[in-house]
C-alpha cells in the first residue's frame, strides 16, 4: 500500500552500505552513527568516503532530509563539569561537521544530565548554550533534541524542558525535536490508543510546537507506563 509516511530504520555496516541495508528491509529512510558512538575520538573521515556516500544517495534517490545521524552516547550537553562539557562540545562539532561533509541535514542528540551537580534550570541553560556553540562552528546542520524518559538526573523528559531549551537557543531555524515513543511513554505521556496519542501530540504542539517536530524514534517499551526507564 502506498503511503506518504516515511519510516526509518537504524542501520549498520558502513556509511554507504546503510542505503542498501535500508532498502533491503523496505525502508526509504534510515539513521546511523557517523562514528564510534562509544568513543571520544575517531579517525577523520576521508573525502573519498564522503563522496561515495553522496553519490550513493544521489544514485538511489534518497533525500537527505530522510536521513538522521545519532550523536554519541557519551555526550552530556548540559554538564556543569567544564572538562566533560568541553569534550561533549568538541565531539558534537566533529560529528556535525561529518554530517555536513556527507550532505546530511539532521543530527539527533540526547540533551544531557545534571549528574546531581547543578540545578535542572542550569543544565537546560547549558544545553542551549552548547547547541549555540556547535551551530556557530558549523554551517547548516539542524540539531534535533531527543525526548527522554525522565530517568534520574536526565533532562528532556518533560515537553516543558525541551521548550525551555528551544526558547533559549539563538538560531531556532537550526533546532528541532526527535520524539522517541519509548521515552515519552516512560516519561508519562500516554500513546496506548489513538485518542490518547492525539492528546499527547496536542500537548506537544501546545508546549513546543509541531513546527519543531522533525523525526520520530518509534520504539516499543519493556517498561510500564511512567516507569522513567529507557
From TrEMBL:
Its cofactor is Zn(2+). Pfam families: AP_endonuc_2. SMART domains: AP2Ec (SM00518). Keywords: DNA damage, DNA repair, Hydrolase, Metal-binding, Zinc. PANTHER family: APURINIC-APYRIMIDINIC ENDONUCLEASE, ENDONUCLEASE IV ENDODEOXYRIBONUCLEASE IV. Coiled coil: none annotated. InterPro entries: AP_endonuc_2, AP_endonuc_F2_Zn_BS, Xyl_isomerase-like_sf, Xyl_isomerase-like_TIM-brl. One of its GO terms (cellular component) is mitochondrion. One of its GO terms (biological process) is base-excision repair. Residues 20-222 form the Xylose isomerase-like TIM barrel domain. GO terms for molecular function: DNA binding; DNA-(apurinic or apyrimidinic site) endonuclease activity; phosphoric diester hydrolase activity; zinc ion binding. It comes from the Eukaryota. The lineage of its organism: Eukaryota, Metazoa, Ecdysozoa, Nematoda, Chromadorea. This is Xylose isomerase-like TIM barrel domain-containing protein. CDD domains: AP2Ec (cd00019).
Amino acid at each position: 500500500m502506498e503511503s506518504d509516511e516515511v519510516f526509518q530504520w537504524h542501520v549498520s555496516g558502513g556509511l554507504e552500505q546503510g542505503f542498501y541495508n535500508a532498502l533491503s528491509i523496505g525502508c526509504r529512510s534510515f539513521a546511523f552513527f557517523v562514528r564510534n558512538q562509544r568513543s571520544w575520538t575517531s579517525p577523520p573521515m576521508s573525502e573519498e568516503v564522503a563522496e561515495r556516500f553522496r553519490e550513493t544517495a544521489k544514485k538511489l534517490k534518497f533525500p537527505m532530509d530522510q536521513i538522521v545521524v545519532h550523536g554519541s552516547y557519551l555526550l552530556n550537553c548540559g554538564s556543569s563539569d567544564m572538562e566533560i562539557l568541553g569534550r561533549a562540545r568538541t565531539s558534537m562539532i566533529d560529528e556535525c561537521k561529518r554530517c555536513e561533509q556527507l550532505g546530511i541535514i539532521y543530527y539527533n542528540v540526547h540533551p544531557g544530565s545534571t549528574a546531581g551537580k547543578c540545578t535542572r534550570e542550569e543544565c537546560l541553560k547549558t544545553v542551549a548554550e552548547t547547541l549555540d556553540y556547535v551551530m556557530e562552528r558549523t554551517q547548516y546542520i539542524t540539531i534535533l533534541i531527543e525526548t527522554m524518559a525522565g530517568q534520574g538526573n536526565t533532562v528532556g523528559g518533560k515537553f516543558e524542558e525541551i521548550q525551555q531549551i528551544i526558547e533559549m537557543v539563538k538560531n531556532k531555524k537550526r533546532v528541532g525535536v526527535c520524539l522517541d515513543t519509548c521515552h515519552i511513554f516512560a516519561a508519562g505521556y500516554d500513546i496506548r490508543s489513538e485518542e490518547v496519542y492525539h492528546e499527547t501530540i496536542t500537548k506537544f504542539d501546545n508546549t513546543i510546537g509541531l513546527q519543531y517536530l522533525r523525526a520520530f524514534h518509534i520504539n516499543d517499551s519493556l517498561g510500564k507506563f511512567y516507569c522513567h526507564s529507557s
